[in-house]
Amino acid sequence: MRFSLHAAAPSRTLLAAAVLLACALAAHAQSTTEVQEISVRDRTGSSSYQGTRRNTAATRTDTPLIETPQAVRVVPRQLLNDLGASRLADAVDFVSGVSRLNDFGGNWDNYAIRGFSNTDGGSLLNGFASGRGYGPQRDAATIERVEFLKGPAAALYGSSEPGGTLNVVTKKPQFTPSHTVGLQAGTRGFHRATLDSTGPLAQNLAYRLNLVSEDGASRTSAVDNSKYVIAPALTWSIDANTVLQYEAEFIRIRAPLDRGIVQVNGNPGAVPRDTFLGDPSRGNMHINGETHQITLDRDLGQGWRARLGASSRETEFYGDAIDLLGTLRSDQRALTRRDSTRSLPSRDHSMQAEAEGKLKLGGMQHTVLAGLEAWRLFMGQDIRYSNLTAQPFAIDIYNPVYNQPRGTLTPGFDTEDRQRATGVFLQDQVDLSEKWKLLAGVRFDRFKQDYTDKLANLHREQAHSVASPRFGITYLIDANRSVYASAGRSFRPNAGAGQNGEAFDPTSGKALEAGAKWQSADQQLSASVALFHIVKSNVLTRDPTNASYNVAAGEVRSQGLEADFAGKLDAHWRMTANFAYTDAEVTKDNNPALVGKRLLNIPRVSGGLFAIREDALPSSLGRYGVGGGLVHVGERTGTALDTYRLPAYTTVRVTSYWQIDPRTRLTLDVHNLFDETYYRASWGNLTVLPGLSRQIVAGLQTTF
Predict the structure, then answer these.
(1) What is the pLDDT of residue 253?
(2) Where do transmembrane segments lie in this chain (predicted)?
(3) Virtual CA dihedral for 99, 102, 107, 111, nearest 10 degrees?
C-alpha cells in the first residue's frame, strides 16, 4: 500500500503559480494604488531576542508572560535571522531543557523537552497539532517565532507529553509592501535561495508568499539532499472586527535515510564521522508535506472574541534504503544490514472553535476561555526488508564498498492506525487582586483508536475518556517581577494491546513547577528560572508473565532546574543565554536492569550562549554586526541499559554581517568553528548520529 500526494500535484502547482502571478501583479500595481491601512491582531515578536511578551499559546489569551504561571521561552524571528537558521533544529540549542533525539535519519523534527519527546502531539503549528506522522522537518523561512511551552499542555491541547510543547507561529501577510530575496552558499554542499514577499492585493486583502529552494549540507560526500518549500498565505479583513486567515505550505524533500555510524565496543568515535554505511545506489527518500489552515477571528465587543479554525495536513515518507538493523560480526568491522523499502503516509484533520471573554464575578476580574476541538488521524506503515540471514548485505565499516545488488524484499510491517478524538476545554484566569493572579483550567478528551496489523491478522480497538486539569498561581512583586507555582496533568494513549487483547491505559503525567520571572522596565530584557518535578506513569514495560507482551506498569521521573535570559542589552548588543540541569530516570519497570537508568539521550547538564554587537561603520559605509556563541551538551546514555555513553561536547560559532545600505546585506557565518567531533543522538543499541563538521556559509540578502 502506498498513499501518494502526487495525483493532485498538477492542480496544486497551477494554484501556486497563480498565487505567484497574482503577487507579482499586485507588486507592480502598488505604485499607483492607494492602500488603506488595516489593523490586524498583532502576533509578531519584538526586535530583540526575548520575543513577544504576551498573547502566546501558553494561555491562548492576550495574557502577559509575566503573569503566566508557566515557563515559556519565545524564540523570535530576530534570533533566527542572526543565527542564519534554515531549520527549526538550528534554534533549539538556545532553549533550556531541549535535547535532540533520533531524527529518523536526519529527516524528522524530534526533540525532548524536560526529558520527554515532543512528537505525536507535542508540536503545534499556529495552535494546531503538526507533529503526528512522519512529516518533513520544519523550515525556518516561514517561521515568525517559536513558543516553547514547558510542562503539561494537555489542559488546552489534549494528548501530549508532560515535558512540554512547542508552537510554531508562521509569518503573516502585511499591508505594508516588502519583498526580500536571499541567497546563501557554503561548504558541505550547501546552497539556498529564498523569497519572502508580502503586501496588499486590495484595500482589505493582503498576501504573503515564502519560497525556498535548497541543496542541503551533508556530513558526507557520498550523499546529498534537496528541499523545496512553497508557502502562500492570505489575510482578508472582512470588516473592522473580523479577520479571515488562510495559510498553506507545500514541502518536498529528497534525502537519504542516513542512520549514521556505529559504536564499537562502546566507542562512538571508532568510525570516522563522514562514513556512510548505507548505499548511495538506493537513492534518496521522499519526504513530502502539505498543510492547509484557515481561521476566522471575530471581535464581539465588550471584551469578547470568537475564533473558528480548521487544519488539514498530509504527509508521506517513502523510498528505498539500507537499514542498519544488523550487528557487527566477531571481527568488529563487518556490519550486517538489510535492504528495505518503506511507505509511511498520514492524514491529519482537525477543527477548533473557541470563545474568550472578560467579566466580573464576585468583585474579581475573570478572563474566561472555552473551546472545542475534534480531530481525525490516519497513519499507515508498509515496510519491507530483505532477509538478514540469507542476504546480510555486509559492509566493512572502515572501508565501505557500495552498489551491492538489491535484495529480495518481504513484508516486515503492514499496519493501519486510525485515531479520532474530541476535546472540550474551559479555562479561567482570575485577578484575585492587583498582585495575585490565578489560572485554572481543565480539558475532557474522548479518544478512540482502530489499529490493524495486516501481517498478524490482528484488529484492535480502544477508547478512553481523560480529564486533564491544571492550576497556577502568580504573585506580582511589581510590574516587572513575579513568582509562580503550578501543577498539571497530561495523558497520551498507548498503542497496542496486552496478551489477552486488552487495551492499555494511557500514560499519565503529573507535573509540579515553581519559578520566577523578571523583565526590565523598558521590556527589552527578560529572564526566568524554573524548578520542576514530573512523574510519568503507565509507561509500557515487559509483561512479567509473558515476555512477548507489554503491560502499562512502568514509571519514569524527570526533575531539574532551567534558566533563560534574553533581550537587548543596549543600543549595540543582543544576547540570549540558557542553562538546564535535568535528572531524568526510570523509577519503575518490570525489568530490574532498567530501574535507575537515565533516560536515553538526555544530558544532565546543557546550555547555550549567543550574542551579537551592531554599530555604524565610518564614512557612511553602512552598519556591521559581529557575534558568536557556544552550545554545550553533557554526557548522555547511548542505550536504555546504559551500555555506552555519548560524550559531552561544546561547539562554537561566529556570525557577521555588513549592512551595505538599507536594502542590501552580506553575511558570513562559521558553524562548529573548531571542527568539534560530536554526536547528536543515538538510535538502537549500535547506531550514533554524528554532528556536522565545520561549515562556512556566505549570504546575500536584498529587500525591495
Answers:
(1) 96
(2) none
(3) -30
Q: Check if the beta carbon of residue 196 is closer than 8 Å to that of residue 221.
A: no
For residue 64, what is the DSSP state? B
Domains detected in the chain:
44-703 (2.40.170.20)
Q: Provide the total of helices (H) and of strands (E) in the chain, helices listed first.
A: 3, 37
- Measured distance CA(292)–CA(361) in Å, rounded: 40
**Residue 501 pLDDT:** 66
Residue 8 pLDDT level (bands cut at 50, 70, 90): very low
Average the pLDDT over 410-438 and give the result: 96
Mean pLDDT (the chain, rounded):
90
239 CB-contact burial (10 Å; exposed 0-12 / middle 13-18 / buried 19+): exposed
Sign of the dihedral defined by the CA atoms of residues 513, 515, 519, 524, in that order = negative
CB 561 within 8 A of CB 581: yes
Radius of gyration of the chain, Cα coordinates, nearest whole angstrom? 25
**Cα separation, 563 vs 528, whole angstroms:** 6
Q: Which spans in 486-627 are helix H?
A: none
DSSP class per residue in 75-105: EEHHHHHHHT-SBGGGTGGGSTTEEE---TT
Identity of residue 589: D
Dihedral sign computed on CA atoms, order 187, 189, 190, 192: positive
* SS3 state of residue 702: strand
Amino acid of residue 661: D
What grid cell was written down for 465?
475518556
Sign of CA dihedral 158, 160, 165, 170: negative
As a whole number of Å, the end-to-end CA separation of the chain is 48
Residue closest to 156 by CA, chosen among 441, 575, 352: 441
Extract the C-alpha cell encoding 280.
Answer: 548511495
Amino acid identity of 406?
Answer: R
Among 188, 196, 234, which Cα is nearest to 215's? 188
Residue 7 has pLDDT above 80, yes or no: no
Which H, E and C letters describe 638-668, residue by residue?
CCCCCCCEECCEEEEEEEEEEEEECCEEEEE
- Of 580, 651, 660, 571, nearest to 612 (Cα)? 571
Give the span between the Cα atoms of 409 and 422, in whole angstroms: 40
Local structure of 12: helix, strand or coil: helix
The helix/strand/coil state of 154 is helix
- CA of 513: how far to CAs of 393, 529, 530, 644, in Å? 50, 10, 7, 32
Report the sign of the C-alpha dihedral through residues 675, 677, 683, 687, in that order. Answer: positive
Query: Quick one: 469 exposed, middle or buried, by C-beta within 10 A (0-12, 13-18, 19+)?
Result: middle
Tell me the average pLDDT across 345-366: 95
Query: Which set of grid coordinates corresponds to residue 270?
Result: 571508532
pLDDT in tens, 148-198: 999 999 999 999 999 999 999 999 999 999 999 999 999 999 999 999 999
Cell numbers for 501: 487483547
Q: Which of 386, 518, 523, 374 is nearest to 447 (CA)?
A: 374
Closest of 435, 568, 555, 447 to residue 503, by C-alpha: 447
Closest CA to 234 of 265, 205, 194, 195: 205
Helix (H) or strand (E) holding 338: strand 338-361
pLDDT-wise least confident of 107-121, 221-235, 528-542, 573-587: 107-121
Q: Of 662, 655, 657, 653, which is closest to residue 700 (Cα–Cα)? A: 657
- DSSP run (H or E) holding 253: strand 242-255
Find cell 514547558 and name the residue.
150
Written as one letter, the residue type at 204 is: N
